Amino acid sequence: MLNVSCPDTSSADVVNVSCEPAVPPADWASSMERQEISRILSGLVLSVVIVAFSAPPAAVIWRTPSLHRVSYLYVMVLSLLDCLLGAFSLSMACAALLLGLLVGGIPCWLCVVLEAATNGCMNAVNVVMLALGRDRYLSLAHALSYPLLATSADVRRHVKMAAAYGALHAAIFIGARVYYGCVNAVQKSCLPLNWLLMPEYRFVAAFTVSFNIFLDVGTITYNGFVMYCAWKLRRKQVHPQCLDQEQGQPNQRSTTNAVRHHMRIFVFTFKLACLFLVCSLPYKLAIVLFCLGAHSSVNLIRVLALIRMMYFILDGWTFCSNRELLDAVKAMFKIKNSGECLSDRSIVLTTNSGPG
Q1: How many CA atoms lie within 13 A of 321 on its CB side?
Q2: How far, in Å, are 38, 69, 125, 237, 264 from residue 354 at the CA level?
Q3: Domain 25-349: which topology?
Q4: Which of 94, 116, 157, 309 could form a disulfide with 170 if both were Cys (CB 3.0 to 4.6 A apart)?
Q5: Phi and psi at residue 89, in whole multiples of 5°?
């Protein structure tokens, strides 16, 4: 089988990239280390779970006309990107298993293409999350002008920006792999994380991941503003008809509804910010610090990478904790809703603030 020279992995500083020549199919499983097999199988399971958890929110928003609003369109795009990421990751795991058992290895170029597609989806998610954070901030800070500031045309523009950003990162990924060789080799498995940790790729990894950290900081900042606005406006009346008709004063029922509505926004955004801070940011910071030589714990990065993948499982269902979207999901799966006060439901349906 065709094999070209690969990076020397004999040094202790270099992470093994499984760039060895392919082996006879009968010996493939026995030649694999237990850790490599477990990573392939865990990637297979995680990919299936990501697709299973991300598809329902996207399907519900697409099928429900009342959810065709700007904020929910962003949520649908995020869920679709999660599905694509899971599909590419699933394809990579299945290709590694099937080709390993059939021919004793997988072409390196196929690993590079699938890894680049997965990487592009992950980077596109960062841009859409930033756009969603901006949209939620505008819906609270500029409630009166929000319908003019956030339109479906903005969603399309931001989706194009996300696609361009993801494609740029995928191109950088492929360019680096082609430049440093090993593309024409036949290797035993695909391990997407390992190439980031090799010395020759560290500049590229630090450069690209730093841009993502910048986007994450912007997203968290917008979420902080949303929580601040929701807390500040929790007792502000939303509609003039909330006033008592006889005394012209806010009635107790409308005040309670307003407090509940803004506190739901606060709690929802707090959960989203925590998801970012726990699942996404630590992994990226660890990659940058590793590339800069601030630490050398590969096992720490592997654990954080697993937590990072959990983000793509949990984000769609974090959005589904929103009352309106959750009711739509229950309706699609024909799950009966528990009894709830009509006034509590109406304040969610009549607001322009989207999820929350």
Answers
A1: 14
A2: 41, 7, 19, 18, 12
A3: Rhopdopsin 7-helix transmembrane proteins (1.20.1070)
A4: 116
A5: -65, -40
Instruction: Annotate 42-61 with b (16+ C-beta within 10 A) or e (fewer).
Output: ebbebbeebbebbbbbbbbb
Six-digit token string for 245: 């008709």
Torsion of CA 108, 112, 115, 119, to 10 degrees: 160
In sequence order, the 6+-apart residues with CB closer than 8 A to the CB of 174 are 112, 113, 116
Q: How far apart, in whole angstroms, are the C-alpha atoms of residue 339 and residue 341? A: 7
By the 8 A CB rule, do 230 and 262 touch?
A: yes
Rounded Cα distance, 106 and 74, in Å:
36
Going from the C-alpha of 292 to that of each of 96, 178, 180, 204, 295, the distances in angstroms are 31, 23, 20, 11, 8
Length of the chain equals: 356
Which residue shows structure tokens 């929701």? 230
**Burial of residue 25 (number of CB atoms within 10 Å: 0-12, 13-18, 19+):** middle
Do 180 and 200 form a contact (C-beta atoms < 8 A)? yes
- Summarised one tens digit per residue, pLDDT across range 277-299 is 888 889 999 999 988 888 778 88
Which residues make beta-bridge pairs with 243? 250
Coil/strand/helix, residue 107: strand
pLDDT, mean of each 10-residue run, the chain (356 residues): 39 44 60 72 88 88 87 90 92 85 81 90 92 88 84 93 95 86 73 76 88 91 86 59 44 60 75 83 90 83 87 77 74 62 35 45
| Residue ranges per structural domain of the chain | 25-349
CA atoms within 13 A on the CB side of 252: 0
pLDDT of residue 234: 66
Query: E-assigned strands of the chain?
Result: 106-107, 186-187
